[in-house]
Each structure stands twice: as structure tokens, then as C-alpha cells.
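Milestone 3.1: sequence recovery, worked example.
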């Protein structure tokens, strides 16, 4: 069944959320004072939101700091996204912000003619921190996944930017259009 934009806007939305790690999912280890990617925090994060018309399937892909991602890791993310777009109304990829733009470019180049939106998001501070932007960014991304046209985007801090041509602006601590 092909869903119309109106169906996506008004009815239940089937979203695959692929988790890859990154700052958003880092947890604090009291024994040594470190922040590490140990397990996904997605379920705890989603419990904070009221999402009555959302059907989420969590697809754990990896749990890495994005600075440690390799080209093979990006190809694995691509393969998982390629599979998910065939079965869901939208795909959300939770990703570390340091190399999110690199993965977004890879997806945009490798997935021409998408039929659904693919949204990448993350956080500048871990979900477990009181002043984290994680909840805001995931909430915005889920709404964007319902409203955006098919394509690859980064959604953070009140913005939805389409790939290609998106970079992390370290000075502003968000994503902007390059050039």
C-alpha cells in the first residue's frame, strides 16, 4: 500500500529508528568517571515523549562514538537504512554529531529517489545530562519525519537541513549549510 503525504501527516506513522551511538547515547560510568557508548538510551528517551500515533521499531546498528566510525560502518548504516525505507514511512538515524554530516552525505549520494524521509539527529550533550539537547532533537526529528518530503536530512535545534551540503558548525554548536 502506498501512503499519501496526508496519511503520513494525519495517521499512524511507522518509523524505524536506527541507533548508532554517539554523544546522545553516552552514559556516565561512576567507577572511572568516563563517558562511553555502552548501551542504547532510546527506550528511556522515548518514554519521556507522548507519541500516540507513532509505531517505532528500534534497530540497533552499532554503539560507537562517530569519530571511531569507519567507511565499513557507514556502509552498514547505509545497508540498514536501505532495508528500512522499504518497510517504514520514515527512518530516523541516531548518530554522533562529529561525523554525522559525512554519513548524511554518504546516504544522500547512495540513496537517490527515496520514497520516504531519512532523518539524522544526535545531541551535543548526552541524554543523561540535565542540559542535554537530546530530547528536543529526537522530538523535532520525529515530527520532521512526518512532515518532510522524501530525502536525507539532519534535524537539530529547530532546523531541518537537506543533504547534500550540510556541515557541523562547531562555533555555533549546530549544523548549517556549507558554503
Amino acid at each position: 500500500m502506498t501512503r499519501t503525504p496526508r496519511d503520513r501527516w494525519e495517521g499512524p506513522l511507522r518509523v524505524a529508528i536506527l541507533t548508532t551511538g554517539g554523544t546522545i547515547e553516552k552514559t556516565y560510568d561512576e567507577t572511572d568517571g568516563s563517558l562511553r557508548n555502552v548501551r542504547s538510551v532510546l527506550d528511556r528517551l522515548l518514554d519521556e515523549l507522548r507519541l500516540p500515533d507513532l509505531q517505532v521499531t528500534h534497530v540497533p546498528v552499532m554503539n560507537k562514538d562517530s569519530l571511531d566510525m569507519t567507511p565499513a560502518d557507514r556502509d552498514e548504516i547505509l545497508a540498514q537504512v536501505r532495508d528500512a525505507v522499504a518497510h517504514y514511512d520514515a527512518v530516523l538515524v541516531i548518530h554522533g554529531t562529529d561525523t554525522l554530516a559525512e554519513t548524511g552525505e554518504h546516504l544522500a549520494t547512495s540513496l537517490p529517489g527515496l520514497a520516504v524521509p531519512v532523518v539524522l539527529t544526535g545531541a551535543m550533550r548526552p541524554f543523561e545530562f540535565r542540559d542535554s539537547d537530546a530530547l528536543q532533537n529526537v522530538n523535532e526529528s520525529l515530527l520532521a519525519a512526518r512532515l518532510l518530503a522524501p530525502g536525507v536530512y539532519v534535524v537539530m535545534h529547530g532546523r531541518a537541513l537537506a543533504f547534500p551540503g550540510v556541515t557541523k558548525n562547531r562555533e555555533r554548536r549546530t549544523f548549517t549549510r556549507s558554503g
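The domain at 5-170 is CATH 3.40.50.1170 (Rossmann fold). The first strand starts at residue 13 and ends at 21.
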